[in-house]
Amino acid sequence: MAIVVPIAEVKSRVSGESAEQVSTLHDVANMLPAEMSGLINPLILLYLVARPRWRRGFALAILTCMVATWICLALWRFIPLAGHILWIVGILLILSRELRSK
Fold first, then answer.
1. How many CB atoms lie within 10 A of CB 43?
2. Which of 4, 22, 45, 102 has a Cα at 20 to 30 A from 10?
3. Rounded CA gap, 5 and 1, in Å?
4. Alpha helices in the chain (DSSP H)
5. Which residues of 67-101 are buried (b: 16+ CB within 10 A; e: fewer)?
6. Are 5 and 35 found together in one domain?
7. 17/60 Cα distance (integer angstroms)
């Protein structure tokens, strides 16, 4: 329940509804992409210190979280600006070696 309240508060600020109105299970499931997008930076750190055989799994998890970030942006009707684009390009540069290898 500790995760539900902050997520409901975030969504209530975006939608204009009260936190009690948006704290249903359906709304929490809609916030899953937001939670996944918050995992990108820790996953990048784990990728950088991981053994080579684990890096491919971390790379796929990071790419999945990137897609979740774009889902959030679309659901909340946000427009990605230069900072977001540079962040994604930086991540792709870090992952480029892993993504090119077989």
1. 20
2. 45
3. 7
4. 4-15, 25-30, 32-37, 40-49, 52-75, 82-100
5. ebbebbeeeeeeeeeeeeeeeeeebeeebeebeee
6. no
7. 35
> What is the domain count for the chain?
2
Q: What is the pTM of this model?
A: 0.71
Q: Are residues 17 and 64 in the same domain?
A: no
Give the CA diameter of the chain. 49
Domain range for 6 is: 1-30
Token pair 């784990």 is found at 46
